[in-house]
Amino acid sequence: MIFTADIIFPVTSAPIAEGYVECADDGAIIGFGKAGDLSPERLASAVRVEGFLVPGFTNAHCHIELSHMKGLFREATGMDGFIKQINALRLTVDREGRIAAMRREFDSLVEQGVRAMGDISNCDESFAMKAGSLASGGMYTRTFLEVFGTEPEDAREVVDGALALQAKARSMGLDAAPSPHACYTMSPLLNRMAAAEGLKSGYISYHSQESPEEEDMLRYGTGALAEDYRQRGTTQLPVTGTGALVYFLDNLSKAVEFPVEGNVLLVHNTVTDQESIDAAKAALRHPYWAVCPLSNIFIHRILPPLGLMRRNGLDICIGTDSLSSNHLLSMVAEMLCIQENFPDIPFDEMLLWATLNGARAIGCDGFCGSFEAGKRPGIVHIGNVDRQSVKLTKESFSRRLI
Length: 402
Description:
By secondary structure, this protein is of the alpha/beta class.
């Protein structure tokens, strides 16, 4: 099948104005180029769309299990307020309702053109859905089995529970492994145990420097998160005088050999700084930096320092986070948010973040993330675009064609 559009974005090569992309019946890319290079017969058989044609997206960070929480959360509460809402609301919908909500949102992401996703799971409720989608050619997922626990004596039991979930996921054909949540929800022992266990698979995800409260807790022992620890009587984290990412790396060095070879997906990064970036570059062979701008605005009213991140040449990815901290799950909406707040970032650079960089981060770039012969990345139409300036508009949408 052949599709033509105003602009084709292969991702690994320059955009093609008035281009085409051709795929086989199984979705494998056959070729792409200038539509004018096609024979008249082949051009006449092509499907024409107005706007952009891009490879399927990789949603680098999502919590699909939290889809039943749509519309329940107050905004701008900060991390401490957000955690309290999650604890109060997480189980207010029964299992059947949770699975139904999750299925609706997952299917919507597939229809929008998400080909792959790095998804956080705390239980097995998403496993059957993910396995079915993978088998039918819908969406590949790498599942990060996120763990929490502030008391060091519980660390072994918590990790063992994640390993049991991993065994179940793998029996269903899913790529899954334990992964630490964040410094402020874990004892140092659990933090490094979970990270070390997850890195055996070659991949972990970690909520990193998401909020000023997290930084205040680790640097100074102050702020809302630190006060919450004290009120609950939980074991206090060490006050390090350094940022939360430096703390994580120092802690991890006690459990694994540096530099770390596996892929480490650092998620959010809203308050990252040069010190943290330098530390990550020194300690990690393959760091990836996921941003979830609409979630960051929802919770904190702040955005990551994309200028600093770009100047450092970081491998940036894009995620949607969850419907507990977002009004919708849409990669186009996330890119539009970036465009509106960082208008100097060109569309094709954002698209790299939303496709190939995410695919590399979760290990599926061999078959998706770009238009390359033999890959099966999916073909996605982005419509209602500004073709002259090559930008998204508030009316832009995406739909999966293949």
